[in-house]
Write a structure and sequence with these properties.
- This protein is α+β, with helices and mostly antiparallel strands.
- 39% of the residues lie in helices and 16% in strands.
- The chain has a domain of 115 residues: NADH Oxidase, CATH 3.40.109.
- It has a four-stranded antiparallel sheet with strand order 1-2-4-3.
- The chain is globular and about 55 Å long.
- It is an enzyme of class 1 (oxidoreductase).
- Its EC number is 1.-.-.-.
- Belongs to the nitroreductase family.
Amino acid sequence: MPGVKEAMLARRSSSKVTDAAPSPAQVAAAVEAAGQLADHSGLRPWRVIEMRADGISRLGRGLAEADGAKEKDVEKFVAKAHRAPLVLAIVVSYAPKHKVPKWEQEAVAAGVAHNLSLVLDDEGWGVFWRTGEHTRAKAVKKAHRLGKNEELLGWLYVGGVPPRGRKPRGKGRIRVSEHLSTL
């Protein structure tokens, strides 16, 4: 059975996915696994918002509003948001006035996002992580119904892997010597 390292080395973003998607129970199990990570003080300063159909349309309208799109262009944003049947919004929920700095709380939420993408990829789903200039716009925050101490990190778009199979990663593996040094 392949291990974690093999799953990480095999992971790739799937920018095109089919209409198949994990069930809510499968998403819940993936989130449970993804949440098992290093977390200073055990704050769990994150949450995931599962969006399908109408929720994804709401995301698209929020992005259109943040962009200042004219009414005739709103549907373009909605269509773009629907490039996968499931969108998982990754949210950092800051513990205000806590000894753990905000950047560290955000790092935990980003770790959950990455773990979640690994779990879903390992289970055979196509996954890609999106962010952009409007990720933290007021209209987008409102569309996600975020609280006062919350910020959006981005979205995991999830769907089936197209029948043609997976293409090899274009970037290839990292050059370890460029990213690992000794002190």
